[in-house]
Give the backbone structure.
Amino acid sequence: MTAVTTPFPPHPAIDAVMSTASSLLGMEVVFLGGLTADTFTFEQVKATTAWPGVGPGVTSDRTDSLCHRLLAGAPPRTSDAANDPAYRDAPKRSELGITSYVGVPICNPSGEVVATLCGIDRGAVEVDDGTLEVLGRLAAVIAAHLVPLITEGLVIRRAAEGGWAVGDYQAGDLTSAMVLADLLAGDLSPGARPVKAEVLDEIGQLRMSIQQLEHALAARVVVEQAIGVITERQHSSPRQAFERLRKVARSRGRKVHDLAREIVLSATDPAVPLPPELAGRR
């Protein structure tokens, strides 16, 4: 696998994932690692204690890092790095005094590695299979925020001529659309919302947190796409498209998410009925 450069935008969902991963692993440091062909960088760090040499923006040679060995095929966890043949000769292991390490790659839909989600500790911390599986799901949530998002065959991507595109439609300013979509959190209610059990063990609670993150992501993606479609159809700004979508949904007693899904479907199926206020200007 080859890591490729990717931005790490500030986002509440990524912050939530980092906090969840920290609770999950119980390690001193959980971090997002960025790798280029030559460098490794602590991009985002969640630490329970100060650790010299570990912090956001700290960069080193890629081959010095434990993440480099992970991506080269080393086991995804160790609780005795000094005696683990896969990690003992990593310069960062001895420099930072790392005893325990766990890491999972963050991949895009093509399978390219865009980052790593990892934990390190100066003590011996065992990571079982269930914990590793949950960490992988957390990495998938982060991946959805770092790479083009794909839902129902429509792709949100940066347009070559500037701005953004939703499928074949120009979507204007996606950043504005995402901010506006986040404001809708209270209105989003797609099916299969996870139901909280009365009693859950720690891993069960963390799995629930991930389900909620995945739920929020799925809802937000559809709303973002609908804003893009309305923007193109009505030659409006994303903010105007958002306001119109919310106004129409409320006037008809509909959930914003449900109406947004119909708008997205109408982009490829003109037979999908829509309120006249959301019809395109042809």
Observations:
- Residues 67 and 103 are 7 Å apart (CA to CA).
- The domain at 12-146 is CATH 3.30.450.40 (Beta-Lactamase).
